[in-house]
Amino acid sequence: MPSFTSSMYITATRDRVWEAITSPEWTRQWYFDTLVESSWQVGAPVVYRRGNATLFDGIVLEVNAPSQLVTTFAAKFHPEARHERPSRMTWRLLALGEDVKLSVTYDDIDEGSAIETLVKDGLAYPLNNLKYILETGRRPPVANVVFDCADHARLAQFWSQVTGYVLDGMGDDWAALHDPRGVGPRLLFYRVPESKTVKNRVHLDISVADRAAAEEQFQALGGRRMEAVSGFGLTWTVMADPEGNEFCIA
Q: Which DSSP string do the residues of 20-51 spell out, in sequence order?
């Protein structure tokens, strides 16, 4: 069975990191804005909520504070994964001088399952947020770049193919992507009733190795080539995504 691990070195005590992964006041700040609920006793339920929605849940299997926590893990936000059996999630905290090595491992996963696709890139993005918060005392200043849209699922799929970002959540009117390496803000797609009418005042610049090949690829995904532009000693192509949001490739 497949297994996936993400690790992060954090300048903090193990007690501080343990509190950050088990306290709702902390998870709200770094773990996809969720509030964790659990007594942290073996056999107790674990629920991660955002508003009235449950994004993840599980059962506590092992507790050895502040060094190891093992739970089952089920992704309730995902239309396919929510029907699959839970996997296992293990948090390990190793003290190394002034730092803590925090490792999160997903295993007991059925090969080819939807949950495998969701967790194969691990927790790099939220763990980077956790490190930033614990070491600076504040959240990263830019959390999301937000797209208003009519079809959040379709637009998230398009931009996942364009950027290589992975899905980290989807609801009835929203979807979110993040860089699997944990770098930079997320892309958030939010469904709204009104359609796009004017040129975007903010857009993304996408770096590609082969601009002509990228133009063909993005058009095949539902995008549209608009024009080639020169300026600042550079040339780039202006394109639009399936809902007309402009972006540039160079």
A: HHH-HHHHHHHSTT-EEE----TT-EEEEEET
In the sheet where 166-170 sits, what is the strand order? 144-149, 186-191, 174-178, 166-170
- Amino acid letter at 69? L
Q: Say what the pLDDT of residue 148 is.
A: 95
Residues 28-49 have a mean pLDDT of 95
Length of the chain: 250
Partners of 125 in beta bridges: none
Provide, rounded to the nearest whole percent, the portion of the chain with pLDDT above 70: 100
What is the model's pTM? Answer: 0.77
Of the pLDDT bands very low, low, confident and very high (cuts 50, 70, 90), residue 124 is confident
Distance CA 92, CA 105 (A): 8
Sequence-ordered alpha helix ranges (H) in the chain: 14-22, 24-30, 114-119, 124-136, 152-163, 211-220
pLDDT at 122 over 80: no
Q: Which tokens sit at 164? A: 């290589």
Handedness of CA 207, 212, 215, 219 (dihedral sign): negative
Specify whether the CB–CB gap between 221 and 156 falls below 8 A. Answer: no
C-alpha 231: how far from chain center: 34
Separation CA 87–CA 109 (nearest Å): 5
